[in-house]
Amino acid sequence: MTLPKPTPLVLTGERTAPGHTLEQYWFARHEVAYQWSVETIRRFSQETGNIDEVDDLAIVDAGCGEGYGAQLLATALRAKVVGLELDTAAAQHAQARYGDTVTVLEANLDDWPVDSDSTDIVVSMQVVEHLWNLPKFWSEAKRVLRPGGLMIITTPNRLTFSPGLGRGEKPTNPFHVEEFDMEQLATLIADAGFAEVTCFGLHHSSELKDWESQNGDLVGLQVEAALNAEADGTEWPESLVAKISSVTNDDFEISPANPDTCADLVITARKLLDD
Fold it and tell me: What Å distances lie between residue 253 and 140, 153, 269, CA to CA?
């Protein structure tokens, strides 16, 4: 497999980026959610009678990071995509690298520089676990969406990402404020006033599960290798690096089945038509 051209954005562990061997598992896990979102948005447009206007969709990618996902949405849907990113270096990088097809704005997700009732779709991938003011995020997402607009959220499943961590407890990951389970996150979204809250989960494929049954949890192995490298410079095991570099989007699948055992929570919801 040929990896994408590496991004010059410095990796800190807070966000993933294309083209880095040791990030390939995380990049594929994140990118497949964007690809699933493309098909979900197409179905949404068809169901709402706007399939002929899909090229004119206005999409906000809230917390766009490196920018690869905003770029994917823009090119796959020929949509008008605005990426919002708090980190100055990431926002500048995304605008420089993808600015021919997307617009990237440096913005705090407490206060979006987007007009009210102006957006068809809000996408936010692997972001809500980083936020200190989640109620304000829901409020801003609902404000910018047009009545009936669609929101798509993904975030790590606390039950599998941090086994044993309770609701509201501070995660070990230094970049995470709080991690969620499916019932908890769906309730938060419904309580924020969204309708048609629908839950899916991103799972490892059967092939990846078979590999893990023989070798151990792939996420846990990566965390262990990273901690050892940071502590004393230990090289990552060659077999683990080989496995990570071979992971593709086909190693993940998104379905409504078994939400408690999924790797990532995936939730769609809509703004009420009369809101």
Answer: 30, 16, 20
Amino acid (one-letter) located at 219: V
The per-residue pLDDT for range 57-99, each reduced to its tens digit, is 999 999 999 999 999 999 999 999 999 999 999 999 999 999 9
DSSP assignment string, 67-94: SHHHHHHHHHHT-EEEEEES-HHHHHHH
Q: Which residue has the tokens 């007009």?
A: 115
Query: Residue 11's pLDDT band (boundaries 50, 70, 90)?
Result: low
Query: Are the C-beta atoms of residues 125 and 96 closer than 8 Å to each other?
Result: no
- CB count, 10 Å around CB of 160? 19
Q: Can you give the pTM of this predicted structure? A: 0.92
Distance CA 219, CA 221 (A): 5
Contacts of 261 (CB under 8 A, 6+ apart): 159, 160, 201, 203
First to last CA, the chain: 47
- What dotted CATH number matches 21-204+253-270? 3.40.50.150
Q: Are 7 and 66 in contact (CB under 8 A)?
A: yes
* Domain definitions of the chain by residue range: 21-204+253-270
Question: pLDDT averaged over the chain?
Answer: 92
pLDDT at residue 268 greater than cutoff 80: yes
**Mean pLDDT calculated for residue range 159-174:** 92
Q: How many helices and strands (H and E) does the chain possess?
A: 9, 8
